[in-house]
Amino acid sequence: MRPQDLQVYGWGANGIMSHSVENRFFAIVCGALLIFVAPLFVLFLFLSSERAEKEIKDHITVLLVANAQALAKPLWDLDEDSVTQISATTVAEGAIVRVNVRDLSGQLDVTQSTIPKSYKGNLESIDRPIIYNGIDGAKRLGTITVYYPKLGLFDGLKSEEIVFISIFIFAVLTVFGAALIGNRIFVIQPLMRLTHAIEATRRLGSRHHVDWQSNDEMGRLASSFNDMQSKLQREENELKLAHRRATDTYNLTPAMLFSLDKDDCIAAVSDYWLATTGYDRAEVIGREFASLVSPDSRTQYIERKRGNTRSAARIDVTVKFLCRDGRIMDVLILETTAIQDGLSLSVMTDVTELKQSEDRNLRQAITDHLTGLLNRQGFESALDAKINEADLRKRELACLFVDLDRFKWINDNMGHAAGDAALRELVSRLQKCMTPGDIAARLGGDEFAMLLLAENAEARAIEMTALIAEVFEAPFVGDARLSASIGIAIYPRQAANAAELLLKSDIAMYAKKRDGKNGAQIFDNGMLDDSRRRAELESHIETGLNEDWFEAYLQPVVNIDDRSIAGFEALMRLHHPQKGILPPGRIIEVAEETGSIIRIGNRIMEKAIADFARLSRIEGMQDTYLAINFSPLQFESELPLRIAALLSRYEIAPRRIVVEITEAVLMDDNPETRMVINEICRYGCRIALDDFGTGYSSLSYINRFPVDIIKIDQSFIRAINDTASDVSAKSRMLVESITTLSHKMNCTVIAEGVETEEECATLRTMGIDYGQGYLFYRPLHPDNLMKTLASLQEDRPSPVAQAS
C-alpha cells in the first residue's frame, strides 16, 4: 500500500491509525492489567502487611505479659525508679517506640519514648492491666500501654517477596509486548487491506476483493468478504429483475392497492382497485383521495393522521367510499405513513358485509328478542338522544312507564308461553297507537316505557294513555284480561336529565299501583315525599328486625252471648323507640312488596306462640285458641315444619292454633300454597278465612278449601245499623246469609270490628258465634293482657268459651 493511501484512510507517519483497532487493543490490555493484575498485586501487599503486623502484635503481647508481671511489685510499692527502668527495657525492643505505665490512683505515670520529633506517621497501641497478687488476693494496680508504628503496604515485605514481585512484573510486561507485536502482524495488516477494499468499493462503485491468504480467522474473513462481494453483484442483478416483477404484482394482485403522495393525492392504483371501484386510471391519478370518500365520513378520513407522532406507524380507518356507478362501499383502509420516494402504500378492503353484520349485532344487543322493541340498554341510549333532540327543538319529552296488572296470573295459571303471546299481542296493539318519532321499549318482564316528543308533552301523554286503555278493552290469549298502571314524567318540566326522568315516571307508576292500579298518574313532587316516607319505612322495618322492635299484640275473641274469651288474634305491631307504635297496615303493605314480610311473620308467630303459652297458664285459658295472620308470601314448603317445631317447643296442641288467610291466598290457587295449607290442616291446625266479603268473595272457597272459621269483614258489621234503611237491610241480609251458609257447612262465624252494644245485640239475633272488636277488648301487649285477664279472674272465674 502506498503512503498516500495510508493518509487517505487516516493512518499517521508512525503507521498507527488514530482510533484504530491497535489502539483499542492496547487500551484493552492495559485495562485488563488494571482490573485483574493490579488488584492481585495490591492484595498480595495487603496480606504481607497483615502478616507482618500480626507477628509484631504477637511479639508485643508476649512482652506485655512479662513486663506486666515485673511491674506489679514496683507499682505496688510506688517504686518509680524500678518502673522507669523496666519501661526503658521495654521500649528498647525493636518494634516498640513508646511505653506508658500508669497506676489507677494517678500517683504514678511513667512514659518512655524513642520516637524522633520528625516522625509524622500513625501509631498503633496495645495495653494490658497490671495485676498484683497479694495476701488479700489479686488486685488491679494500673495499666501498661505500648505503641508501635503502623505498617504500610510495603513495610512488611521480605527480600524474597521483593524478588518474586520483580519477576512477576517482568513477566507481565513481556506478555504485554508480545501481544502488541502479534496484534500488529496478524490483525492490523489484514484489516488495513480489508479497509482499502471496502473504501474502494464505496468510492468507485466496483466490487474490489482483498488480497490476503492465511489459514487463520483473518484469512477466513478475507475469503468471506470476497464471497460477499461476488454475491452482492449477483443480488444487484436480481433486484433489478425483482423490481420489474413487483410492478407486475402491484398491478395484478387481487387487492385494492393504491399509493398517495405527500399531499394525499392518488399517485398509483392497482388494476384490482380499478376493477372493484369502476374508475379508470386516468381519471383518478392526481386526484385527492378524500374526494372519493362519502361526505359524512370525509372529515374522519382527513383527520386520520391527527395525533399520530410516529412517522412509520400504520393508520387504519373505516370510511364510506363512492364508487363510479354510485354504489357506496364500507371500506377499511390500512395505510403506512412511512413514505418512500414521496409515496405511501395503502390497501383498501371492502367490509360492507362486515359492517352490516355489526349493525345486526348492535340491533340484537339493544332489542328485546320477544317483542322486537328496544330493551333497557337500547331505551337508555334512545332516551339520551331524545333529550338532546328536545333541547335542540325546544320541545318537551314525556316518559310513560307502563307496568301490566295481573300479568303474573297469566304466567302462573296459563303458562309462560301464553304470557309471551300476550306480550307480543300487546306490543302489536300498542304500535298501532304510536306515531312516527315515538319510541317504545320493554324494560323487562311486564314493564314497558314510551317516549313522546311534543310541544305539550303532558297533553300528548294523556292522549296516549287513553289509547292504551282502549288496547286493554279486548281480551288477550285465552280470554285473559289485563290492565296497566302508567306513570308519566315530563322533561324538562319535572326532570333535569334522563335518569331523573325515568326514575320519576317509575315513581308515578308505583303511586298509581298503590292507588288501585289500572290507570295513569302524572308525577308530582308529593310523590317524592311518599317515596322518601316509603324508604324511611323500609329502613324502620329492616332496623326493627335487627333491633327486635316487632311485637305480637293480642286481641281477645269473645262469645257473642256471654262474652267469655274463646281465643286471641295475634296482631303485628312495630314499636319505634322514638315514634312509638307505627301504623301496621302500611308496614304490611311495604313488607309484602319488599319480601321482608316472611321474616316479620316468622318473628310475630314465634313471639305470639310464646306469649300464648304464658297465657295458657292462667286459670280458665287452657282451652282458648290463638289465631295468626299469614301473608300469601309466607306459604313456603318449610312453614308446616316451622309451626310444628314451635308448638312442640311450647307444648301447645295443634287444634289450639288457627291460621288466618285472606281471599287473595285462595284466589291465587297456587298448587304449592294449596299443598302447604293441606299439610297444616293434616297436622291439626284450623283455617280461618279473614275479611270475608271483600274483594272477589265467593262461598265456593269454603267448599274448595278446608276452612273452619269465617270472619265477616267489619265494613258489613258497621252497616247493619246504618241510618239509611236500605243499606242496613242489605247488610243484615248479607250477614245473615253468610252466617246461615257457613253454619250449614260446619264453619264457625266471627264478626270483626264490633264497637257498639247495638251492633252486638243485632249480631246475637243473627246467630253470630263470636265477636271481636273495641267493644270487648282492644289489642294489648301480652304483659298488659295478662294483667287484664288476672283482674277478670277475680270478677268472673271462667271467662272461656270453646271455639268449635
UniProtKB/TrEMBL annotation:
Residues 534-793 form the EAL domain. InterPro entries: Biofilm_reg_signaling (IPR052155), EAL_dom (IPR001633), EAL_sf (IPR035919), GGDEF_dom (IPR000160), HAMP_dom (IPR003660), Nucleotide_cyclase (IPR029787), PAS (IPR000014), PAS-like_dom_sf (IPR035965). It holds the Pfam family HAMP. Residues 395-525 form the GGDEF domain. The keyword Transcription does not apply. The keyword Membrane applies. PROSITE patterns: EAL, GGDEF, HAMP, PAS. The chain crosses the membrane at residues 25-47, 162-182. Residues 242-298 form the PAS domain. Keywords: Membrane, Transmembrane, Transmembrane helix. SMART domains: EAL, GGDEF, HAMP, PAS. Residues 185-237 form the HAMP domain. PANTHER family: BIOFILM ARCHITECTURE MAINTENANCE PROTEIN MBAA, DIGUANYLATE CYCLASE DGCP. This is Diguanylate cyclase (GGDEF)-like protein/PAS domain S-box-containing protein. It comes from Rhizobium tropici. The lineage of its organism: Bacteria, Pseudomonadati, Pseudomonadota, Alphaproteobacteria, Hyphomicrobiales.
